Amino acid sequence: GDSVTQMEGPVTLSEEAFLTINCTYTATGYPSLFWYVQYPGEGLQLLLKATKADDKGSNKGFEATYRKETTSFHLEKGSVQVSDSAVYFCALSNLQGGSNYKLTFGKGTLLTVNP
Amino acid sequence: GAVVSQHPSWVICKSGTSVKIECRSLDFQATTMFWYRQFPKQSLMLMATSNEGSKATYEQGVEKDKFLINHASLTLSTLTVTSAHPEDSSFYICSAHPGVVNQPQHFGDGTRLSIL
């Protein structure tokens, strides 16, 4: 079945540091890929998405490129802020096999940014 | 962006009580809604998938008689935790999908359920 593997946290950075959170996936066909962010005590918010190979999703300074050849969707940000502290989830949606828009999540990566 | 409202955000009740959680899509029609459970410092665990007007499809290991799901309209789904016990205490999150290919699920803010 489909699966998502993302780097284990926690990740602790200083403000303005460069961020990379690795995400790789296993899936049949051509899944859509997503990054969601969860702030403490809240639900998930969509951060960015990509629906086909070589697409780059971007939002709020975060970027991720859909790399089919390496089955990866790494999240990057050039300069993190304290307000970026949250848990980040990589996820995929695969319509093959009648999955009905289900998401397969990675385990999440806790990011803490210190001033 | 798309908005999903989940209510209540926090509920504390006695063991044996039934608790209803509502999930509403405010600005789009949700053909499919999902209910998740999240334990501390863990990822989301899918409990069930519901399509409007149909019976929910439960994931393996989820008791359908304990967690009743109703999706009576394209904008509202409810999860009722029946005869709740302390082990049912958790963070429950709903999401809604518009039924369009390549569109994301949109999540509610979650409900913190504490059973005493």
SSE map:
The complex is a heterodimer of chains A (115) and B (116).
Chain A lengths: L2 E4 L4 E4 L4 E3 L1 E4 L5 E7 L5 E7 L5 E4 L2 E4 L9 E3 L8 E8 L9 E3 L3 E6 L1
Parallel strand pairs in A: 2-12
Antiparallel strand pairs in A: 1-4, 3-9, 5-6, 5-10, 7-8, 8-9, 10-11, 10-12
Chain B lengths: L3 E4 L2 E4 L5 E7 L6 E7 L5 E8 L5 E2 L8 E7 L2 E6 L8 E8 L8 E2 L3 E5 L1
Assembly annotation: heterodimer
Termini of chain A, distance in Å? 41 Å
- String of helices and strands of chain B: EEEEEEEEEEE
**Share of helix among residues of chain B?**
under 10%
How do the helices and strands follow one another from N- to C-terminus of chain A? Answer: EEEEEEEEEEEE
Radius of gyration of chain A, whole Å: 14 Å
Derived from helix and strand composition plus strand pairing, the structural class of chain B reads mainly beta
Mean of residue pLDDT values of chain B: 93
The residue ranges of chain B in which pLDDT falls below 50 over 5 or more consecutive positions are none
Q: Outline of chain A, from the CA principal axes?
A: globular
Kindly name the structural category of chain A. Answer: mainly beta
Q: How many DSSP E strands of chain B?
A: 11
The major beta sheet of chain A can be summarized as: 6 strands, mixed
What are the low-pLDDT stretches of chain A, counting only 5+ consecutive residues below 50?
A: none
Give me the number of helical elements of chain A. Answer: 0
Shape category of chain B: globular
Strand content of chain A: over 45%
